[in-house]
Amino acid sequence: MRRIKLILEYDGTGFHGWQFQPGLRTVQGVLVDALQKMTNEKIKLIAAGRTDAGVHALAQVAHFNTASTIPLDGFLNGLNSLLPDDLVVKDVKDVGQEFHAQRSAIGKRYLYRILNRALPSAIVRFRVWHIPTILDIYKMSEGCKYLIGKHDFSSFRASGSEIRGSVREIFEIKINKEKGDFINIIIFANGFLKQMARNIVGTLVEIGTSKYPPKYIKEILEAKDREKAGPTAPPYGLYLLEVVY
Predict the structure, then answer these.
(1) Catalytic hit among 11, 33, 52, 85
(2) Which residues are within 8 A (CB) of 235 and not within 5 positions of it... i.e. 6 or more apart?
(3) Domain assignment of residue 113, given as a range
């Protein structure tokens, strides 16, 4: 039995997230359909993380087991010939049975993109969060300092999440301004709670508009209360950038 690792890129706009849902178009559902057509086997596909509806990925990682003898380039070319234009398999590798796309990961890096100007964009409207109010990225960066390290991120977890344990470690947060009025926020952590990245971004935006001072982040963490943090940023500005093993 082989275990195969996939690197995936997808535009989340037309998907109801990663996880299979009956009657809905999901990344997992579309990819499993293609794999089962190629192998004539029932495929169990496991990803490094479940992206929400509208969230994009530049390097999602997934694995599956198969008895198929199809060569790697056959899987790569065959899958891409069967998949829609908004989902691409970038790489295919044979890995050992000890590899697990989710459990073997030691960290994930997410990118959030903001268009910070008065007028929205017709071209990238489903790729960025348009914020017309000028943001102070210095204040936002100051707020990030309170997020670095191991903390209980209950205040940044989506309400109703069933995952036990809310302690995660953020290794690094970078904020930079790109030509064309784009602001990039990159968060690297050992794991993320449901909507954690988007809730952090929503809170940083409120700091960037001077609604709260940077040190308010510390109060939010200590409160362990979702109501204390900022709004959830829209999904379409978020990209799974990298999974680290």
Answers:
(1) 52
(2) 12, 52, 53, 54, 55, 198
(3) 107-244
* Predicted pLDDT at 161: 67
User: Whole-prediction pTM value?
Assistant: 0.95
Mean pLDDT computed over 43-65: 97
> Of the candidates 35, 65, 95, which is a domain's last residue?
95
DSSP assigned state of 119? S
Question: Any idea which residue has 């064309």 for tokens?
Answer: 180
Catalytic site residue 52? yes
**What is the count of structural domains for the chain?**
2
Give the model confidence (pLDDT) of 94-116 as tens digits: 999 999 999 999 999 999 999 99
Domain with residue 50: its CATH number is 3.30.70.580
DSSP code, position 130:
E
Structure tokens at 62: 């997934």
Instruction: Identify whether residues 172 and 78 lie together within a single domain.
Output: no
What's the pLDDT score for residue 163? 72
Instruction: Give the end-to-end CA distance of the chain in Å, rounded to a whole number.
Output: 23
Q: Residue 159 pLDDT more than 90?
A: no
| Stretch 136-152: mean pLDDT | 98
**Does residue 124 sit in the same domain as residue 203?**
yes
CATH for 138: 3.30.70.660
Q: State the Cα–Cα distance between residues 151 and 186, nearest whole angstrom.
A: 18
Residue 10 and residue 87 in one domain: yes
Rounded to 5°, angle at Cα 120 from 119 and 125? 175
Using a pLDDT cut of 90, give the percent of the chain over it. Answer: 96
